[in-house]
Amino acid sequence: MAEKKEESNQAENVIYVGKKPLMSYVLAVITQFGAGQKEVHVKARGRAISKAVDVAEIVRRRFINEVSIKEVKIDTEEREVEGKKTYVSTIDITLTK
Amino acid sequence: MAEKKEESNQAENVIYVGKKPLMSYVLAVITQFGAGQKEVHVKARGRAISKAVDVAEIVRRRFINEVSIKEVKIDTEEREVEGKKTYVSTIDITLTK
């Protein structure tokens, strides 16, 4: 665990889904469960939300059968870009083993 | 209510989000709540999932403050296309007033 912490200062059990290929996030989630995490959050914003759902579903159905979806939360994030407020939807999928 | 039933044989309180502009689904949800529904489901598959989250969030935050998210369910739909199994992720967002 200690050497993993050095790689990143983000929480280990949070996977942020973005523009990388789907399977790299699937692998990241599997790795967290393999390292002993009991709960992994799959988070995304905007257009990546669909991909986050794919990641959670693929982990659960194709790779780790004992993983289930504990909770799905959606929300809106407010940002200010050049003095103008913009809004982006977010998702937080809690997977539990 | 009776004349509305004739327009469609789908459940009235289920809005399927697809390729139309975002605001047409927002309007459809608002219309259902305006017609007296206490609960509206916003459903989508695949790439439209992000848009479904946007629809729910816009209704809740911008239009009807007393609407809240009761539940978000994600799942996988199995289909057979030309003898080959394909999988698509789905979302079902329950909005309640």
Structural write-up:
The structure is a homodimer of 97-residue chains. Chain A is an alpha+beta fold. The first copy, chain A, has a single domain, classed as Alba-like domain (Translation Initiation Factor IF3), CATH 3.30.110. Chain A is built from three helices and four strands; from the N terminus they run H-E-H-E-H-E-E. The first copy, chain A, has helices at 2-7, 22-34, 49-63, and strands spanning 14-16, 39-45, 68-81, 84-96. In chain A, strands 1-2-4-3 form a four-stranded mixed sheet, with helices on one face. In chain A, strand 1, helix 2 (22-34) and strand 2 form a beta-alpha-beta unit. In chain A, helix 2 packs across helix 3.
How is this structure best summarized?
By secondary structure, chain A is of the alpha+beta class. Chain A has helices spanning 2-7, 22-34, 49-63, and strands spanning 14-16, 39-45, 68-81, 84-96. Chain A binds chain B through residues 46-50, 53-54, 56-57, 61, 69, 72-76, 87, 89, 91, 93, and chain B through 46-50, 53-54, 56-57, 61, 69, 72-76, 87, 89, 91, 93.
